[in-house]
Structure formats: C-alpha cells, structure tokens
Write a structure and sequence with these properties.
Elements: E1 5-10, H1 13-23, E2 27-34, E3 37-43, E4 52-57, H2 61-72, E5 78-81, H3 85-94, E6 99-106, E7 109-115, E8 121-126
Parallel strand pairs: 1-4, 5-8
Antiparallel strand pairs: 2-3, 3-4, 6-7, 7-8
Length: 127
Amino acid sequence: MKIIITSVFVQDQDKALEFYSETLGFIKKADVPAGEFRWITLVSPDDQGGTELLLEPNDHPAAKEFQKKLFAEGIPATMFGVADVRKEYKRLMKHGVRFIMEPTEMGEVTLAVFDDTCGNLIQIAQK
C-alpha cells in the first residue's frame, strides 16, 4: 500500500492552482470537471509519477471549519520537503509569499511556514 493522493482544502480552486503551480512550481497533472467543482491534482516536477496533491474545494461546512481552525491555531495543513529551506524561503519571498515562521532549525530538521493565500499554512522542511 502506498499514498497516491493527498489533499489540501482550498477556498478557490483557480487561485490555488495558480499559486501551487506558478509560485510553488508544482506541475498540473489532472484538471477535470467534477460536478460544480474540478478534480485538480499537481505533482512535484522532480517526481511526476509520485504522490499527487489534490486541491480540494472547502465547500462543505465541516471542511471550512477544519481549515479555519487549523489556520487560526497556526497548524500547517501539510508539509513539503525541500533540499534547502533557506534557499526556498528566499525564492518564495521574492514571489511575495508571506511567511509566518522563518527558517528555524529544530534538531536535524530546518522548517519554515508560509500562507498559501488559499486558507492554509504550509510547512517546508529540510532534513
């Protein structure tokens, strides 16, 4: 058994697709109609056959509340691995990304947390 898709709730699928592809650099793998929304997945450019990230609409009240509470408590919705957190932090800052936690060493891991503009905090980590 392996993880093939993981999801993140988003307030606006178009805005999320733009941010996750143009700003973060993920590659769109699927974008198909799914009722009133779309099934949009992205993959890492370094592992295009790997785990897909689903941009899941937060239309359900439970999803909205879950997303809102995580954000309010400063809890990242997910974590992405990067080779160099400080380098990625500088790159994303140049793109106007707002960080709530600058690169911070925690034992053998360096972390940073940013706002994805779609209702989530996202953590990046370097081992």
